[in-house]
Amino acid sequence: MPGTKALDEHYKALSDEELLKLAAGGGFTEEAERVLGNELARRNFTFDEARRHFAPQWLDKADVGKIGVLVLENGERITAEVAGLNEESDQLSVTVIPSQSFTRNGHPSRRSHREIPFHKIVSFEPQPHLLEQWPFSDPCRNSKTSPPRFLFLSTVFLCMTIGSIPLFLLLISKPFGFQEASIIAYTLWVVFFTFATTGSRGGGNVPGYKFTCPVIKSQAPHLLWRHTCFLVALFTLQTAMLAARPHLPGWWNVPDRKGMTPCGAALFLLCFALLWTQILSNRSLLNRAHREFSPSQSA
User: Fold this and answer.
1) Are 128 and 67 in contact, with CB atoms under 8 Å apart?
2) What's the CA dihedral at 128, 129, 135, 141 to 10 degrees?
3) Residues 67-86, buried b or exposed e (16+ Cβ, 10 A)?
4) 116 in Cβ contact with 94 (< 8 Å)
5) Is 24 in contact with 51 (CB distance < 8 Å)?
6) Cα separation of 55 and 69, whole Å?
């Protein structure tokens, strides 16, 4: 069995990489561990650093497909799914799972891919039931559409577009019939563009909100109250414009080639501005509520 001096000379002859790899292996006698520890300390290394670099204790837990929390040496905590292990380059490939359902600009949070060197990982704790917890269990994260949701939103869309024309024709001759038809059509537009996933001019989709989401349920009274206020504003605006129309200068009521008068165009633009204001404010409210929601608030 080699003596202390022989061990000391052997360890000093090793490169840093060889020394760390040897230290990570373990299984030393008490004397050999003491001498090796002294050599590591002389080079400003520790046994923990050697194990993290070559044989991290968390490695056996990080099977491909496992979901868990990674803690890095800089203190960063990452919730991720293990995508692969590259032991030749000592890197862990993970798919990062964002903790928020939506970003501040209203777009759904997307998973990103990262390659993390072994020596930068302090620990990995598997969380098999993590995706059952909030916010990972948020139904609004799922881009798939259920048949009942598709049927409901399709019905709303058809009533909003095709159904609005006969609705106005049916009610236009009644007192306040125009306002009644407008309230129904307005409500359909608000429901569809608040909750449906729609395209945008930038090319990406604007995320939809699911009716089964606890955030949506918690905000339902607020949404209904806001909608009532907007409907009152819509009714007041239309009634005031229709009452003022006979008293406006003549050119306000002269139809163009398409039959639209300046008064009618102004009323349409004002109603559309009111509609779009409510839709944007509704989505902003629900986006903010998703970021702030916790299960304890739903109790």
Assistant:
1) yes
2) 80
3) bbebeeeeeeebbbbbeeee
4) yes
5) yes
6) 19
Contacts of 149 (CB under 8 A, 6+ apart): 210, 211
CATH topology of domain 57-128: SH3 type barrels. (2.30.30)
pTM for the whole structure = 0.67
Report residue 216 as tokens.
Answer: 């949506």
Rounded CA-CA distance 15/107 in Å is: 51
Per-residue confidence (pLDDT) for residue 222, from 0 to 100: 95
Helical pair 164-171 and 177-195, crossing angle rounded to 10 deg: 160
- What tokens were used for 238? 């239309």
pLDDT tens-digit readout, 167-204? 988 998 888 999 999 999 999 999 999 999 876 555 45
pLDDT in tens, 22-43: 776 666 788 888 888 888 888 8
pLDDT 10s digits, 262-283: 888 888 999 999 999 999 999 9
- Extents of the domains making up the chain: 4-54, 57-128, 139-298
